[in-house]
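Hi support team,

I'm opening this ticket because the web form for multi-chain structure prediction keeps timing out on my end. I have pasted the exact lines I submitted so you can reproduce it. The total is 578 residues across two entries, so I didn't expect it to be a heavy job. Is there a limit I'm missing, or should I split the entries? Thanks in advance, R.K.
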Amino acid sequence: MLAERSLGAVEGLFYRLVTAPQGVAGALSGLGLTADDLVVSDARLDAAGRLEVYANMYFFRLLDVLRGDYPKTLAVLGDAAFHNLVTDYLAAHPPANPSIRFAGDGLPAFLTGHPLCGQRAWLVDLALLEWARVDLFDAVDAVPLCLDDLGQVPPEDFVSLRLQPIPAHRVVQVCFDVAPLWQAIEEGAAPPQDAVPREAALLVWRKGVTVWHRAVSVEEAELLALAARGATFGELCERLGASLTVEEAARSAFAHLARWTSDELLTRALALTTSDPTERNGTVL
Amino acid sequence: MHGFPNLGHGIGLRTVHYREVVADRPAVDWFEVITENFTMPGGNPRRVLRAVRERYPVVLHGVSLSLGSVDPLNEAYLSDVAELAAETEPAWISDHLCFSSFGGHTGHDLWPLPYTEEALAHVSARIVRVQERLGRRILVENVSSYLRYAHSTVTEWEFLTALCHRADCGLLLDVNNVYVSAKNHGFDARTFLQGVPADRVGQIHLAGHSADGPLLLDTHDHPVCDDVWELYRDAVARFGPVSTLVEWDAQIPPLGRVIEETQRAAAIEAEVTASGTAVAFAPSQSWEASHAG
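Hello R.K., no limit was hit. The queue was backed up. Here is the completed structure from your submission:
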């Protein structure tokens, strides 16, 4: 018998019943209640069946969203295992954000300790890559730097040029080489069941309205991180100069700059600092 | 009532139609967008919304206000809605009579409320706070439901009527939801239409549903069925020409097919209003006037 029927008690009970991994009947049994204590039965459907409608909607709506967010992880695991994974995940991490877009944000971390990863630790890296792609799809916009913009920069000013990566970029550090695996599934191959253990940095970014990713060297990842922290082009050259000649460092830095510009990875809001400390703010293209 | 002009006949803006809507400027009076799909700051959704807003009136329709929840109102979410509204300048903002969160967790569903005095007082107070936060009167939609609580003390339409007056909000009347709930619970859909306050209906929703065993589910994956068109005819006769929107969210057909549904709605509205009966949305004064000082 339901002892309390305050709004809070009723909402709490409803929530427990429709989100219970063991189903409405199991949850009711555990609570020593019957569905009729809460809900009206009629000739069409009994009270427990009516609660089950909501329980199914809760789970399958979220399952659909996660299937959309993690299509490659789904392809590797198959429908049944992915279904069970989502059941476990939702029990441990019920959604908390008003936007369903965030429902899957904790899945990579959750996978880390999940039995499914016992023999396939690389699933975590695959999920990290997939989530980064979801997360950057609607990240903050920025007007990208283009080659014409660079053409306006006097050669002597390049050394003081600050390169600012766009907000819609992320470098994902992985322990397994999952990018080829992702690509194979994308191209319709049978989902690989193994990945090569190899630490790598995967650059994920949005160009226009499309999200891309590619493996980057440790060097390129470091340069991007330096740029994001406000380093000038000259400082990037200095970093490269630690292991290269001055000419090689400059050539390498310009090669990165050309690639990043082509990838629309830099914002147009370039701050041109000058050697005069009183003009540190410089100009903006 | 101020704040809810008759925009004509619109459709819900859906991803599969983005390109065609932006490129072809189809003959649609207005678009409704799901608020939560556009609260993120960048990327294609906001780009599309800006392009659509340049050419059409837009309305924000939310699913996450959780007006009936005993959880605190989500202030961060409200700020997102306010920010989106400031950029989009929607004709109005709407959400649902339901709860969708408990204990800080969200169900991403429209869960039914018990129709009790306690719930009425609670929801009314929250709507008042939301309206103060957004600086405008909102529309609250009746949801499709698949259960009734044993301890409810009034009908859904009695609850909605009291809610509109106590919270000074408007009503987004979803005719398909009325039909689905009527079938699922065995009440007369026309009694529902007669029971809600005509002067508070600021918008009408139409949609398709599907049968699942003994119940109808509000799946938005079919055309509007003949029974719902008939109920819409009754709604227009009672409420007059009200902004009407067709929702189609799954098994979505080509844009032209959705537009055909709005054209059918427009034809029914024209036919019914030509015959005479119409009560415009007309509470006595604007939200701003009634809340000044």
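A quick check on our side: Residues 255-274 of chain B form the longest helix (20 residues). Let us know if the file doesn't open in your viewer.
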